């Protein structure tokens, strides 16, 4: 057993042994004296104390067998739109799995997948194949999500109510029927802000989502059905609670200026507030381009220059350290913010950048006691983040980018490697 866990075990054993010696009396009786009389513990209480005492001794005699390491791997991708030209391509081939087929091996390599669902479902399968900004996904198109282990979707986006409130309710119920969890939108604002918990291999991952807009009007109006990124107080209170109960917390935002590589201030404010409150990672959607990545320090040392510069992103490693100023030594536990993963399944074939996207293959792990004497909950460790550039073909279908394409996509956001450094950033 390592020193981290022994520091909790030793005091427990000391207390048990003291209590054992204090209570134990002749003839295997347990009693204690108050000022006037001796009180004997019940047989049930004696048995419980003996059981705890023996269990503590058993635990103290074990080594690493008392601790089990668990790990979970999930895939995070960008915007998924199963309407318009995507729906037409699916209809032409009579294959609802068409947009997912070229990435079968990637989906198979993870425990589950996460994305932003940009097109609601409804009780009508009608869709406009071109031009329309009102989305509706035919019901059969959900098969690609189910077959490829999309266990959680963010519904907080400007298209959540494209089919009206009835369409949102239908989407929620339809996802539930297909065992797909969701966050960011609901029939009440409390429902919209409700987090989603994914239990994977003994690790508790929690997701929460919010959008810059409630309907497709550039954020001008609000309603009680879509969580908004501007509600920072609600964000902070929700994440503070999750941070005390979850092993790993992901905040998702649908926000930003379309067709840009840099985040706007609203994105930065939301992402920083989420991590300051306890989120382990922020994943963004909406701009339709891949945007820059920030390694953000939630609690910098007093001498750190990393906080207070509103527009400056923390540089990622280029050779040694974390860029200028040796930022690594000034921040013990930085967190990653992916401002936009770009498109994943979409039909915007009219430019190279709208055909590009970024998937994240994320592995986390945790150590658990194999008995009920475990100490306080310990956060999961971020083991690896692999950046997987993708290219969309045929108005519908993402594929892995080749070496040249991958390099070009990463260069646009100033990233030198597909594997992000994790020193101090777990």
What does this 3D model show about the protein?
The protein has 426 residues and is an alpha/beta fold. It contains 10 helices and 17 strands. It has helices spanning 3-23, 43-60, 84-93, 104-108, 143-147, 164-177, 189-193, 232-245, 265-277, 403-412, and strands at residues 24-25, 29-33, 38-40, 67-80, 112-117, 150-154, 181-183, 196-200, 203-211, 248-254, 281-285, 293-296, 335-338, 343-345, 356-369, 381-393, 397-400. Helix 1 packs antiparallel against helix 2 and helix 8 (232-245) packs parallel to helix 9. 39% of the residues are buried.
Layout of secondary structure:
Elements: H1 3-23, E1 24-25, E2 29-33, E3 38-40, H2 43-60, E4 67-80, H3 84-93, H4 104-108, E5 112-117, H5 143-147, E6 150-154, H6 164-177, E7 181-183, H7 189-193, E8 196-200, E9 203-211, H8 232-245, E10 248-254, H9 265-277, E11 281-285, E12 293-296, E13 335-338, E14 343-345, E15 356-369, E16 381-393, E17 397-400, H10 403-412
Parallel strand pairs: 4-5, 4-14, 5-6, 6-7, 9-10, 10-11, 11-13
Antiparallel strand pairs: 1-2, 2-3, 4-15, 8-9, 12-13, 15-16, 16-17
What is the number of helices? 10
Q: First CA to last CA: what distance?
A: 22 Å
Which whole number gives the mean pLDDT? 84
Q: Which structural class matches the secondary elements?
A: alpha/beta
Radius of gyration: 26 Å
β content, as a range?
Answer: 15-25%
| Helix-strand pattern | HEEEHEHHEHEHEHEEHEHEEEEEEEH
Shape: globular
Count the beta strands.
17
Parts with pLDDT < 50 across at least 5 consecutive residues: 16-36, 303-329
Main beta-sheet annotation: 8 strands, mixed
Estimate the helix proportion, in percent.
Answer: 25-40%
